[in-house]
Design goal:
With about 350 residues, this protein is α/β, with parallel strands linked by helices. Helices cover about 30% and strands about 15% of the residues. It folds into two domains: about 140 residues, Glycogen Phosphorylase B (Rossmann fold, 3-Layer(aba) Sandwich); about 180 residues, 3-Layer(aba) Sandwich (Rossmann fold), CATH 3.40.50. Helix 11 links the parallel strand 10 and strand 11. It is an enzyme of class 2 (transferase).
Length: about 350
């Protein structure tokens, strides 16, 4: 591809991480507004990047998860070589993703040390100890490794066209003019991150009791369907107001539904960070993870955490077997935080 040099961003594999990497692109665009930015992302994460204003082209990776596929990466790198990249920012910390810009002959390759990637990454950054929160972690790549990071970083931001929002709401049965509260009861990381479904169900009852015209949308992947079924089963007399859309929406549709939600209640998950970047009122529920490491950034946001002595353990399953960090965070506590937002 002829013309001006371009920048390649190699995306993280997690939805929330991709959202929190958006300020890096905002900083890059500020420093060189003429430079086009492409993002290479897994298909599962690509819809997030299509909602990022600074992205010109989203390229979807053809690789299998966790597989090296060296010959396939070589073939894909040859295609990237034709696009004329001047630099690449490798956000995953693995060798296999650093291979692609190196094989493509991109001269400046920026990233963290990761899996001993000397040579593959030739502008090497090193993380602080303890690790920085995710937004400054990625944003630091916009500067030289020897330069200090600015304190006033941009917040993660996504945008969705209004007509897309209207189409998706109509397609999935959201009533015209009705307040939609979105719940994200799942968490890809593991069960320890999930607030109990009975608490979500009780919270839905409180919402509908306070506003009988409200609807509650349960969002998530097909894997989250059993959890969302439990939420609906625990919603009692608010069951009629539940839209159980887990596994029924693609990610771009979920993003559109969240974009005009009256509020979003979510575990520490990708949908939480999408809601934050869309600047929706957010109630974020933290159990085994650190609420200070990846907080919501919307204008109206609350982070709820019991901050028990055993937290944050950062484990997929509760190592003590009681899951008190989520079990003891009752629906009444969540409702006290959520009600002023509504």
């Amino acid at each position: 591809m002829n013309g001006q040099p371009r920048t390649l961003i190699v995306s993280p594999n997690w939805i929330g991480d991709a959202v929190m990497a958006q300020p890096l692109l905002a900083l890059l665009r500020q420093s060189r507004p003429e430079r086009q930015i492409d993002v290479l992302a897994p298909p599962s994460v690509a819809p997030v990047w299509r909602a990022v204003a600074q992205v010109d082209t989203v390229l979807e990776t053809p690789f299998r998860h966790r597989a090296l596929q060296l010959s396939e990466r070589w073939k894909y790198a040859k295609l990237l070589r034709e696009r004329g990249y001047a630099d690449a920012f490798v956000l995953p910390n693995t060798i296999k993703y650093a291979l692609i810009p190196w094989l493509a002959g991109i001269p400046r390759r920026v990233g963290y040390k990761g899996e001993m990637r000397y040579g593959l990454v030739n502008v090497m950054h090193h993380d602080e100890v303890p690790p920085r929160p995710m937004v400054p972690f990625y944003a630091a790549l916009a500067r030289d490794p020897s330069e200090p990071l600015a304190a006033d970083l941009p917040r993660p931001r996504l945008t969705v066209p209004g007509e897309q929002v209207a189409q998706v709401r109509a397609r999935h049965g959201v009533g015209e003019g009705r307040a939609l509260v979105a719940f994200a009861p799942g968490a890809e990381f593991g069960a320890a991150k999930r607030w109990p479904p009975r608490h979500f169900g009780a919270l839905a009852q409180a919402i509908v009791q306070a506003n009988p015209s409200a609807q509650v949308a349960l969002l998530g992947s097909p894997k989250d369907r059993p959890t969302c079924d439990e939420v609906a089963a625990n919603a009692g007399d608010a069951a009629h107001a539940i839209l159980n859309l887990a596994g029924q929406t693609k990610l771009d549709e979920a993003i559109a539904l969240i974009a005009k939600a009256a509020a979003v209640v979510a575990n520490d998950s990708g949908l939480l960070h999408i809601a934050s970047a869309l600047n929706r009122p957010v109630l974020a529920l933290y159990g085994p993870t650190d609420p200070d490491h990846a907080p919501p950034f919307s204008d109206m946001a609350r982070s709820l955490s019991l901050r028990l002595d055993c937290a944050p353990c950062r484990q997929r399953e509760c190592p003590l077997g009681h899951h008190n960090c989520m079990e003891q965070m009752g629906a009444d506590m969540a409702w006290r935080e959520l009600r002023p937002m509504l």
